[in-house]
Amino acid sequence: MQEPSWKISEVASTKNLKRRSISAACSWNPGCSRPFASKISSCAEGDRVKRKRVSVDSNIALGTKQNKLMKPIEVKTMSKEKKDEAPEPIVPFPKSLSERAMVRTGISSPLAVKKSPMKVTSKKKVVTKLEECTSHASLQPQSCLSRSRAEKSASSLYHHDKRPTKSIPGLQAHSRRLNACRSNVVYYGSKKNNVPANPRAKVKRCLHIFKVRCRNLLRAIESGKKPANMEDNRIDRKVASIMRKGKETLNRDKPVVGPVPGIEVGDKYRYRAELCILGLHQPLQAGIGTTVRNGKRIATSVVVSGGYPDKVVNKDVLIYSGSGGKPTGKPGHTKPKDQKLEGGNLGLKNSLDMKIPVRVIYGWETRNRGKAMMTYSYDGLYEVENYWLEPRTYEVKGKPMAAYVFKFQLRRMKGQPEQNWCKLKRIQMSKVREGLCSEDISLGKEVHPISVVNTINNEKVPQFRYIPKTVYPSWYQKSLPKGCKCKSQCSVETCSCVVKNKGKISFNFDGAIVREKPLIYECGPACGCPPSCYNRVSQNGIKFPLEVFKTKIRGWGVRSLLSIPSGSFVCEYVGIGRPSSDMGVRSSEGVKEWFTVDAQEMGNVGRFINRSCSPNLFAQHVLFDYDDKKMPHIMFFAAENIPPLKELTYQYKYGSVHDSDGKEKVKECYHGTS
Ligand SMILES: C[S@@+](CC[C@H](N)C(=O)[O-])C[C@H]1O[C@@H](n2cnc3c(N)ncnc32)[C@H](O)[C@@H]1O
What we know:
- It contains 13 helices and 23 strands.
- The chain is an alpha+beta fold.
């Protein structure tokens, strides 16, 4: 296996490398699957140090206090837990935020679907008599259709399970510990006011605040404390307005023209309000975002979400309809009006004249168990190439009525990353998958095949034995947990597993984690509840079509061929469960023995997941089939909505390691580019 592309810049002296440094080594590289020998050779000093670094480096330590990311189950934590084990008052099982928000806020798709697609015949100004106009507008952008189709087909390609995996923004991120995990973004600049200097980290932080505030507001409303000044139940909009007032939004004062720092092509969002708080698209409702430059109104962004008959000609060309003129049905506005060259329309025209790029965001409707939900995806920068007037027919009280509308032709600018949906389409269309090394590295051991792809070089995936579950030494006696006696779905009122979880079920009805905890007890084989119980999630295995792929600079990595909604279970970190003493790691702080998961010789797809300072996964300890806090399962969950083909990463927590001069050591980490 190749040497790592980064190295520890200095090796601490034996004297200075105390317990902290062991954990730091561990946390830097918990899942490394490099052979021991290569690690030993990479260590410069002290045999003892080498052994420690090597052994811990190679594995995820389950019981080390220092390995904070893994939320170790150490003695202190355990004893605390025991004290806390007296059940808290049982609270009603909450639905997911999104679900409740959907019900309460009435967020439904603005996409009214009409099937006949509009034909754009001319790019020049069209001067057609109104009565000649017969074109019927399509309200569903074709791109949206092809996009969702591409994803669906990818899903069918990989026999994607139909189990719902709806995104749950706003819930799973909110426990204190998860906050800690997520806020582990690297502070490249000043840590003043806790504001990260890295633009990507700023974006993540802003979205995180949004989610936390949504949840808090929802709680307040549920307990009858709806803010007096809140007229409707649009929690997302209310939170966006609170954040604007509290100056917690990004790029609000000076709207950004061109790329928004920290936002990448393919980023996905659930709410328009999220686009607004990030400054990706400022208006909450209007399709065209504008600002003023040199005294002229220019367009900064457009949202294509079906409100107007826009048309996607191909992956680079979009015909965008101007705004206004629609009959609203309100007094004085019952008939369609000709659009005027003002507001957003004027902005787009001026952007053409001034050659100013416009951000394009696509929104499309997806359905989950019959419920409508929107997904927005940033598609990149476009240039306005042309505009013209065109008649459009509206149906008013059953009668066709026509008015002129503006059409703007936008072309995607060159030099931007290819959109993921296009890549997916290409993958799906091609008979032979480019760079395919293995169709299923799990050799049928996982429900969904795990392909291996290398389009970078000729390297093959390293030799290891694929195991879907962690194996433990033969002498190790697993103790079965006491199961609940529920006959149907577990409920907070009656289930003894819920009591173990301190009165709360950590998952929502869609199988997304809503509460990160030091340890989650799922119902297990000893429980009376059915396999469909909401408290059985990560034990059901991988649900997404994962793929191992060769990255440019981080060796092999893992990605999904489908979007992963925030909070979804992704995979377990599997390997050989070894007592830490076997690994040359001494117990500390009264811990007699704990287990580490060694994925070097045997493991699953989890062994290929790389680290990032801005991860999109987090690790959660889970117990269900045995009752030993020293060796919980390490389960990865999505910390955010993850677009297809985006590399999956988690944070190998880097504790503070100091050199002999007491200076904190810094290690290079490559992320951002695959
Ligand atoms: C758990 S393995 C991940 C799979 C690994 N990339 C491979 O090719 O097998 C951890 C190793 O990947 C590499 N790695 C992981 N994240 C990295 C990052 N952000 N930058 C550079 N190297 C990284 C390091 O060599 C590390 O020891």
